[in-house]
Amino acid sequence: QVQLVESGGGLVQAGGSLRLSCAASGLTFSSLSMAWFRQAPGKVHEFVTTINWSGSTTYDANSAKGRFTISRDNAKNTVYLQMNSLKPEDTAVYYCAARADTGTRYYTDKEYYHYWGQGTQVTVSS
Q1: 2 to each of 115, 118, 123, how far by Cα in Å?
Q2: Distance of CA 25 to the CA centre of its chain
Q3: Under 8 Å CB-to-CB from 13, ≥6 apart: which residues?
Q4: CB of 81 closer than 8 Å to CB of 19
Q5: Phi, psi at 111, each rounded to 5°
Q6: Which are the contacts of 87, defined by CB distance < 8 A and separation ≥ 6?
Q7: Residue range 14-40, pLDDT digits in tens
Q8: Is the pLDDT assigned to residue 77 strictly greater than 90?
Q9: pLDDT at residue 103 greater than cutoff 90
Q10: Is residue 79 within 8 Å of residue 49, measured between CB atoms?
């Protein structure tokens, strides 16, 4: 059974940085395409960024471009989200998601992801 465990969330001032981590177990990590989504209070899940199984392909939502970077370490079964220049509107619960996929195509809709973490809260104060 695949388990995804996020960590690294917290409270940060606007303009600050956070690095989220998501540790995976239960499947061969290098066979997984990974993504980060977020959900703000009263809003639906929003795609943030994704990375393919090898790390050769990434795709960012417009809200993340230039500020957020996704990366992965297949030796550590972990995907990361480096968030810089944080804004109050980045406040949300951030979820790690995975799909079994060894291609290069990227997916931004949450229904394409089979496995989800429990989420980690990110709060950005103004």
Answers
A1: 7, 12, 27
A2: 16
A3: 124, 125
A4: yes
A5: -70, -15
A6: 14, 124
A7: 999 999 999 999 989 999 999 999 999
A8: yes
A9: no
A10: no
